[in-house]
Amino acid sequence: MIKLDTYMQKYNKINTKEKGLQPFLFNKQQKELYRLIKNDYNNNKPCRLIVLKGRQFGVSTFTDCYIASRVMTKKDVNGFIVAHNSLSTNNLYDICKTVYNNLPEALKPMKKYDNDYRLVFDNPNKESTQSGLNSSIKAMTAGSDDIGRSLTINYLHMSEFAFWKNQKDQYLGLIQTVPYVKNSLVVIESTANGYDEFKLMWDKAVAKENDFTPVFFSWLDFEEYQKEYDGFTLTKEEIELKRKTNCTLEQISWRRYAIETLANGDVDKFNQEYPTTPEDAFISSGRPYFNTNLINEYISKCWTGIKGYISGNQIMQDASSDITFYDKVEKGVPYVIGADTAGEGSDNATAYVINNITGKIVCRYKTLDEEGIYTQELNKLGKYYNDALISVETNFSTYPVKTLAEVYDYPNLYVRERIDTYTNQTVKSFGFNTNRKSRPLILGILRDELNTNIKNMLDKDILNEMMVFHKDEKGKPKALEGYHDDCVMALAIAYGTREQQRRSKKIEVQHKNEYQTFLNFGG
Fold it and tell me: What's the pTM value of the predicted model, to 2 decimals?
């Protein structure tokens, strides 16, 4: 029996831009995909691949030729292809039709239907005793609520998954249609589109926390991505790229051409479409609110800190504590605490302490403890850090700020002005209110602080959250679905309210006894 890879390369035809209809001969990357599938099948495992790719890498072509070849040679199986838009649905379906139309007549299975992006291979003559394959291929566009739900799918291709809407729900609906049995196949492939559900699934695959094998292809792996080197002087960035990857001058020459011609001069766009590493792909894509390239330079340099708690006026080390200290208190230095309560979601109750002279983060408190404990620790932290200004977000709960004021008699709470709805008079209230006016203001302050003083905020939690803080379709900055923003909001409140705290060190005057004072005045 002929091997499937031999069958595909001998009998499958594909349309190419340069030469029109051509035999489908595997490139290096397609050979690797076939090897991974075959390895799982030989080990009686269901094959699950998640592929992070760039443009023109041939992943979709291979996947759909593979599905078509399987469906057209086996009985009672279904292939399902889901694309991110209607144009891609049409293109991927055409790959399968091209394979079928160009098979030798002796190898063509009987075709019963070819409509609505669906090929059904069965005997079209109902009265005939000759049986067909009873197999099919269906292509659809992502977005339908009931996509694939009525089918049993043996071979599933989810194309450009990062550009689907409602990625998580669509995925859950589809994956349940594929039996977890040997010889089944699921391929999720996409170029990156920021930190989204695709990124979550990719990270879990890399960490071996799901059933998917992560597959990444760098543009450096493609032999055709080279251009003659004409002797130009390399930039610092190109020198570093050559050092890290050992790429050739011809590859750097092609990269220059591709940035200018294929990416319109946009390096981030090039990194998204032709990534060198997975990190390049995700960092350079999507609509990040913060400078993710800058963050990526420093995220490996984050402080370690000491876990502990405040007892009296001392830091007591405790590895199980929710509080991380980066600096002890300095005498006379003013501090600010920005506190974001947990609200109604699954976020932590969070607080950051900053040195108000330097702007440096000196402590992080992030907990799932109930409000009483959270407020108690805020009080201890505030008193330890020289009666720091405490700015507590009050949108979801006023308990912390009321308790700090009325129970702990805390001396330095942030005060805002608001309009009393009964008297229509301006009154002062404790705590910070996050609203349509204040939210973009404090986020802008935080972004400016990051761009100018990132070395003041080398806390891994805040930098990780900034990486997944993007602008949505309406331009509103928010955490991507599945991620949190409690650290971002707490630190934004700290920087956004620091004008109510002094910026200079308080110098304590030593009192002298009366005799010394008399001598000083020459008495």
Answer: 0.72
